[in-house]
Amino acid sequence: MIIVTGATGTLGSQIVQQLLERIPADRVGVSVRDTARAANLAARGVRVRQGDFADPDSLAPAFEGATQVLIVSSNETGGSAVAQHTAAIDAARAAGAGRILYTSHQGAAADSFFAPMSDHAATERYLAETGTPYTSLRNGFYASTVPLLLGRALETGELAAPADGPVSWTAHRDLAAATARILAEESRFDGPTPPLTAPNALDLKDIAEILTDLTGRPIHRVVMDDEEWVAGLIEHGLPAPRAAMLLGMFHASRNGEFSTTGATLSSLLDRTPTSLRTLLAGLITSN
Questions:
Q1: In this model, does residue 147 exceed pLDDT 90?
Q2: Closest C-alpha among 107, 118, 113 to residue 77
């Protein structure tokens, strides 16, 4: 049985939906914090059990009978994230899983300027040390982040943010489809995969130009001072440590940490990955 954690989240839910198009429902199990939110999956024949990374004892029954376990990374950061991932890895091994898969990031590195990347790197190190066969999915940066960076650009005509660098923005649905194929076909990616990314990398100036083309209105890229940008976030109620962490994302992109692209995702999808332009066009239409 293939166990998917976080199956009611943005990525996990799409992975399960894609997986059910490839294999029978009775071969799929999900581990979720709130089983009521997975009632639709239970109705389709998926095994639904309660499991919480923060409660390691809950993971044994959730992972029971697993042949593969997909650990969708926690939304926590720092030591708590790594502790949760470690607990899930230990539970998957105890359940006898023949392979553990983990949703990592293309920029995973211990010395990254963006704190979550060191969490991914620490989790990958732990996986490698267990001796259990594993696959670390080096996912591209989620394209769903882009609307959060736009601020009021569509209203004001100014995309104001700190200096940045190119990022290979990648759609959740594409990563979900690729992951489902890897799970269903037991594709043997041992250790970290090649980058699972869109075919190109774009910075915010590129995005402003795309928005200008899509809307027919000029959208200008305005580079803000780092401290000014952080102060604005804090003024709007974001805790200072969180604001500082988010600034790290810009520092990391300036350093080229998210600029890597590759053909592996396209190969797994048997098509070209969804472009950021297409996703932004959908955003504009929905607004």
A1: yes
A2: 118
pLDDT of residue 32: 97
Predicted local distance difference test score (pLDDT) of residue 287 = 65
271 in any annotated domain: no
Q: Are 202 and 167 in contact (CB under 8 A)?
A: yes
The stretches of the chain forming alpha helices (DSSP H) are 10-20, 39-43, 59-63, 79-94, 115-130, 146-150, 153-156, 172-184, 204-215, 226-235, 240-254, 264-269, 276-286
> 162 - beta bridge partners?
224
Q: Is 119 within the bounds of a domain? A: yes
Whether 183 is covered by a domain: the verdict is yes
Evaluated on CA atoms 63, 60, 128, 111, the torsion sign reads positive
* Spatial contact of 157 and 217, defined as CB atoms under 8 Å apart: yes
Check which CATH number belongs to the domain holding 39 and give it. Answer: 3.40.50.720
Residue 191's H or E segment, with its range, is strand 191-192
Question: Total structural domains in the chain?
Answer: 1
The answer to whether residues 151 and 161 touch, using CB atoms and an 8 Å cutoff, is yes
- Domain of residue 24: give its range: 2-139+172-192
Residue pLDDT, tens place only, 190-230 = 999 999 999 999 999 999 999 999 999 999 999 999 999 99
DSSP 189: -
Residues facing 134 on adjacent strands: 100
